[in-house]
């Protein structure tokens, strides 16, 4: 077993590799979002958001969560060092991805008219939604290939596949938005998905596997284990995606498609930036936690270590985004999106509670306690939808952000007490201190930015961001020697 210092370094290494490429993905995404906002406007962004929600809804409902359960299965069999066993499970994963991808394709084609009527109030978008079926298939195949790389802990290859897929998709899709405007949304999304699939295939095909005789029926039986665990992932993802679908319907019922575009912009920013950490965390953290699933003491220790690093890296980022929300929306989209600034600030503050719950919630799946995962997400989304629905007359558009934060608090409470029951989990003393200090800072900066405006507010807020960044950097240096890592990195480049 790793000692404490090595464990922190492993966390930092995987976070650095995946997080670094995710940052590049974000920079590329900034260009893409900016072009979309300028060329398509808020309504075009809203249409693209609804299309993506439909894709996610069908993919989650028909994918059986194999992109996630596959990671767990591959990670488990890789520990056996048995090439035949590993090859067999890789083949099963690939066949299930092909089958579920085709299943999702047929579903979205069959229900395309219903999706159009329910989403837009008419059947005008039926043909466009039919073409979205291509994305369901290609993204399912791509996700399984990324899952294979992650399960085998080929973190660098996985990160490169995600990065190059994003670059290729951006290069081929942006001209379509330029030439065709809103009519280029679906072709652009399709080409982006195809590029991601091709790039992930290039990296995953390098994995050498032995020949294994495996019939279709055997593949189905062997894959049922993944599907059983994946069932919880399916329900979980479906609940989250359905929630966003309902939220967008609520916005349209009160306001317009343009307002959906404002919400889409906020949701994209808040989820994209937080996913830098979450994806970096899951890349190596989930396989490692899976290997410790039968050792509560070791798994709880790893959870606290991961949470500590996540808070130190994520908190300054969240505080900075709360302060810079107006600038961020202007840079990433346009001045017309300024109405969404308060919502973005509420959601970035709410993301602090996502940072708390994610390292803990991964234990559900590593211990095959998927029902807790479903209950946790259902509770969070039910609270969120209910708050937005009933509080709209009091808070209007801002209820979207307030509800997100409060739902995050509810989720953290449930996750903590359920993990205490499952594995006897307790926050470490240092994490309790960080949660109190960082949580107070996030809420204080949020309140300051919402209640006051002007250069003095920005000056003070930037000062707080700077102080927390320095503090977190020093703490990370104590844990993993981050200064020396940076010095060594530049020394190697100069030599």
What is this structure's SSE topology?
Layout: H1 4-62, H2 66-78, H3 83-110, H4 112-120, H5 126-151, H6 155-180, H7 185-204, H8 216-254, H9 257-291, H10 296-323, H11 325-332, H12 341-366, H13 370-395, H14 399-423, H15 429-451, H16 455-480, H17 482-494
Helix pairs in contact: 1-3, 1-5, 1-6, 1-8, 1-9, 1-10, 2-3, 2-5, 2-8, 2-9, 3-5, 3-8, 4-5, 5-6, 5-7, 6-7, 8-13, 9-10, 9-12, 10-12, 10-15, 10-16, 12-13, 12-14, 12-15, 13-14, 15-16, 16-17
Q: SS-based structural class?
A: mainly alpha
Low-confidence region ranges: 16-20
Distance between the termini: 35 Å
Q: If helices are DSSP runs of H or I spanning 4 or more residues, what is the number of helices?
A: 17
* Helix content class: over 70%
pLDDT averaged over residues: 79
**Estimated radius of gyration:** 22 Å
The number of domains: 1
Task: Characterize the quaternary organization of these chains.
Answer: single chain
Along the chain, the helix and strand elements come as HHHHHHHHHHHHHHHHH
Main location: membrane
Subcellular location: Cell membrane
Protein name: O-antigen translocase
InterPro entries: Poly_Biosynth_Transport, WzxE
